[in-house]
Structure formats: C-alpha cells, structure tokens
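Entry for the shared binder. Reason: the reviewer on the internal report wants the predicted structure included alongside the sequence.
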Amino acid sequence: MTNPVLEAIYRRRSVRHFTADDVSLDELREIVKAGIWAPSGLNNQPWRFVLIRDRQTRGRLAEQTKYKQVVLAAPALIAVYLDRNTMYDEVKDHQAAGACIENMLLAAEALGLGAVWLGQILKNKEEVRRILALEDHLDLMAVIALGRPAPGERSSQRKPLEEFILKIF
C-alpha cells in the first residue's frame, strides 16, 4: 500500500539522538499547527504550547527528567499543556492531548525531523511550569524533544495484528 499518511505512521520512530543543526521557528509552528488539527470534544481545543530553543532554558528543563541527555541534545522542545479553563471533560480532553501530540510527532516525521515524546518529566511538572513562568491553570501533558536525527538505525517491532483483535463480527 502506498499512502503517505500510513507510510509516515509506520516509518515514525522515537528519536533520542540529534545533530547540532537548528530547528527553525517555522518548522516548530508547522508542527504545532498539525497538533491543533487533532480532534477535541466540542472542538474546545484545550491545548497550549511553549516553544523552546533557548539553550539555557533547555538546560534547566533537562534537570527535571532522568532523560537529561535527550533534552540537552535536542535543539528544540515543545511543551504541551492543557488549559484547565477550557477543559470540559477530564478523560476526553486528555485523549485529545494524546491525539494532538501524535499529530505533532507525525508532522515532525513528515518534515524530516526526529522527535520523542517525553512523559517522565511530568513527575516534576510544577517545577517545569515555574521554569517556563506559566499560570497554574496550565497542566503539562508532555515535552516533545525535536531535532534532525543523528545517523543510525532506528527500528521497532510490533506484535502480530491478530494478538490485538479480540473479535470480528
């Protein structure tokens, strides 16, 4: 099957090693644009973003996760937040955030960038919010580390499809 969307889904991998090349603000904006086109309940679009290219800020954020080396190596980060003031349903809005983040990862792939969804940093989300000088109603969902992928093999495996399908009617 040749379909660019499916090809991007099957090709995308979590990238944790990057070259030193910059990620442009235009590329970051395009990635966020793809994110905001994710579905959300009542089309409330509860997501908010912080684009981070500043080395000092990246260094301070790196101290908030055991994946410090990934954060330090990435030329850009996108912190993804939910705005509690626009949320209407906890579960649906968190699902929407996941869809938004996946759209962003696929957009990075389409732009020839590497990315990884960092969730472990959530254990220090209050400190991350303080570093980024954000208001209390914003709830960190993930930090996406982005850059040009360093050379190397990126492979992954999946269990057979049949292991996931419970029934066919």
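Summary line for the report: The mean pLDDT is 96.
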